[in-house]
Design brief:
Elements: E1 3-14, E2 22-33, E3 38-42, H1 49-57, E4 64-69, H2 79-82, E5 85-88, H3 100-109, H4 119-128, H5 144-156, E6 162-166, H6 174-191, E7 194-198, H7 202-206, E8 210-215, E9 218-223, H8 225-229, E10 236-241, H9 246-254, E11 266-272, E12 275-280, H10 286-294, E13 301-305, H11 310-318, E14 343-354, E15 357-368, E16 372-376, H12 383-390, E17 398-403, E18 406-407, H13 412-416, E19 419-422, H14 434-444, H15 449-462, H16 478-489, E20 496-500, H17 508-523, E21 527-531, E22 543-548, E23 551-556, H18 558-561, E24 563-564, E25 567-568, H19 571-586
Parallel strand pairs: 3-7, 3-8, 5-6, 6-7, 16-21, 16-22, 19-20, 20-21
Antiparallel strand pairs: 1-2, 1-4, 8-9, 10-12, 10-13, 11-12, 14-15, 14-17, 17-18, 22-23, 24-25
Length: about 600
């Protein structure tokens, strides 16, 4: 049997001098036979996923060793190789000043496609991802999700035998994600092609035929998803607490793991479908787990064993080298008493127009002290515009926003002093070190030097940034940039924290660390407003809204919104059904 991937003694590093040299792969071996048409790479930031995909696509040269892809050595200068490869990078590689259709024509033409003979085929591709009506729009004017769709079309258009896709659905909403995978699956099936892809979505990995889990250039796990799932027998459970609401029950569970109690048998906690899923250590029995949980919940719990999912496998493997990414020593570890009825953010019929285009239509909602509130919606739904208006970055056309009793239209600067903001792109100063970034943000918020020095020391410990404090932010791994961005937003101990898709592209363990911190902030009374495309993360929210075309479709808590025929459904299922129903009604 032939192999689709064959790698022997691969060595790859970045940098020339010993001081700057970073070894990514050191004598790396990998063989995958040609029976596997969907091959998934997953792992944390810096694991080597993108590097491996670039090497396979021939856009990056190895140092030493051998690489064969479908029995050919990757070489980007060899047309016979490149015409057989459809590569989509994380940077997408689009030409912003060209239209959608011109990008597609140019990039597929360079790969050998006869444009004149295949023009209708290109239009059909655009139609499949709902981009046909935007074919004359400049790529620069597309939303992030639309750019992802276009980049995928550019990879598929030349009709390659092998697709190499680097996180093709990162930052894309569930509706668009489903459309992208429909196109990929349809193409691979009809062309009998191969798809080698990386992802942070473990549900996507679970649908593949072969999963490779990488970390630090090493292959930690590889195999068929069904085989890997068999390794966690009797270690995955779910429970519901008696006489305690879902949100409070989750916050208790998050502080009942080994992070806060070394004797805890619980390795991982994750909210799903109105229940709380847990992963336990190898020595924990169901009786031991139930006794432990009953000691944390006054009226006990209803415990059930559940089937493991690939995310459990990932977390279990990743925790073997876990040393605590977030310590949260500055946050209270108990649920504090504060006025939960106090309205911290009041949004009253805000509307935003850009010329004749209405981005947000008369939105109203309140967020209370200590509440975690989510803004959900597909790409282009008006989330970011709403988000920017309520954190004083954009003026509403109509309506008003009050933050801590201050009207943003009249006291914007005073209100900003109570706000922390984590943007999707992190807004760090690239040439400044970790310490200098924290110092800059602290001074900009008016902290006194002595107070600032103590606060920076706290945050360096809380976010495990001590070893990075002298490193320029542009040289930090993506995950460390995320931690620094959060630390900068918290430097002045804000009463309200705005987080805009900060976990986009993050692996499951990084997301767990993130939400562990968010839960502690909420417990101490901080009001938190988040946007995310990970629908599972909305389970952490006390309340959330779903909007589309600038209009709020539903608002409330997960257990109220996500009920169908008397049963609890996933937020993702509710999201997809609601958006599709709305668009069908509006004929969109």
């Amino acid at each position: 049997m032939s192999n689709i991937i064959e790698i022997n003694s691969l060595n790859k590093s970045y940098g020339v001098s010993k001081k700057n040299k970073k070894i990514v792969y050191d004598n790396f071996d990998l063989t995958i036979d040609s029976n596997h048409h969907f091959i998934c790479l997953t792992g944390p930031d810096g694991a080597g996923k993108s590097t491996l995909l670039k090497l396979l696509a021939g856009v990056l040269k190895k140092d030493t060793g051998t690489i064969l892809l479908d029995n050919k050595e990757p070489n980007n200068a060899d047309e016979s190789f490149t015409e057989n490869i459809g590569y989509m990078s994380q940077t997408l590689g689009l030409y912003g000043e060209l239209s959608v259709i011109d990008n597609l024509k140019l990039l597929s033409g360079l790969r050998g496609l006869n444009i004149k003979a295949n023009f209708d085929y290109l239009l059909e591709l655009l139609d499949n991802v709902k981009l046909l009506k935007f074919k004359d729009t400049l790529a620069n004017d597309l939303s992030g999700g639309m750019k992802q769709k276009l980049a995928l079309c550019c990879a598929i258009a030349p009709k390659p035998n092998i697709l190499i896709l680097d996180e093709p659905t990162v930052g894309v909403d569930p509706v668009s994600r489903a459309q992208l995978w429909d196109v990929i699956n349809d193409y691979v099936k009809k062309a009998n092609a191969y798809c080698i892809f990386s992802t942070a979505y473990l549900e996507e990995a679970q649908e593949s035929e072969m999963v490779l889990m990488l970390n630090g250039g090493k292959l930690l796990l590889n195999g068929k998803p069904s085989e890997l799932l068999g390794t966690l027998k009797n270690r995955t459970y779910s429970f519901e607490a008696n006489n305690i609401n879902y949100a409070k029950s989750l916050k208790i569970a998050l502080r009942s793991t080994f992070r806060d109690s070394p004797t805890s048998p619980i390795l991982d906690v994750c909210p799903r479908l109105g229940r709380i899923d847990v992963l336990v250590n190898e020595n924990c029995t169901s009786d031991h787990l139930k006794a432990y949980l009953n000691s944390h919940y006054p009226d006990g719990v209803e415990l059930k064993e559940r089937l493991p999912i690939l995310e459990d496998i990932y977390i279990n493997e990743a925790l073997k080298d876990f040393h605590g990414a977030v310590n949260s020593t500055t946050q209270e570890q108990t649920i504090n008493n504060y006025d939960k009825d106090k309205k911290v953010v009041v949004v009253n019929e805000i509307q935003k127009k850009f010329g004749n285009f209405t981005a947000v239509r008369k939105s109203s909602f309140n967020v209370h002290k200590g509440e975690i509130f989510g803004l959900l919606g597909p790409n282009g739904a008006g989330k970011t515009t709403t988000f920017r208006m309520i954190c004083a970055l954009l003026e509403p056309t109509k309506g008003d926003v009050k933050v801590n009793g201050l009207n943003l239209s009249k006291a914007k600067e005073d209100a900003r002093g109570t706000i922390g903001y984590v943007s999707q792109k992190f807004s760090l100063y690239r040439k400044l070190s970790v310490y200098q970034n924290l110092e800059y943000f602290g001074l900009s918020y008016g902290l006194e030097p002595k107070q600032l020095k103590a606060r920076i020391k706290e945050l360096l410990e809380d976010f495990s940034l001590q070893e990075w404090k002298k490193v320029q932010s542009e040289n930090l791994p993506f995950g460390i940039q995320r931690q620094l961005s959060m630390a900068c937003a918290l430097i002045h101990k804000p009463k309200i924290l705005f987080i805009d898709e900060a976990t986009s592209g993050a692996d499951p363990l990084a997301r767990r660390n993130f939400w562990y911190l968010i839960s502690n902030l909420s417990n101490s009374g901080t009001c938190i407003i988040v946007t995310t495309h990970f629908m599972e993360e909305a389970e952490y929210c006390d309340n959330f809204l779903i909007q589309d075309q600038g209009q709020i479709l539903v608002i409330g808590d997960p257990n109220r919104i996500c009920i169908k025929d008397g049963k609890r459904i996933s937020i993702q299922q509710k999201f997809v059904e609601l958006i599709e129903e709305f668009r069908k009604k509006e004929d969109l």
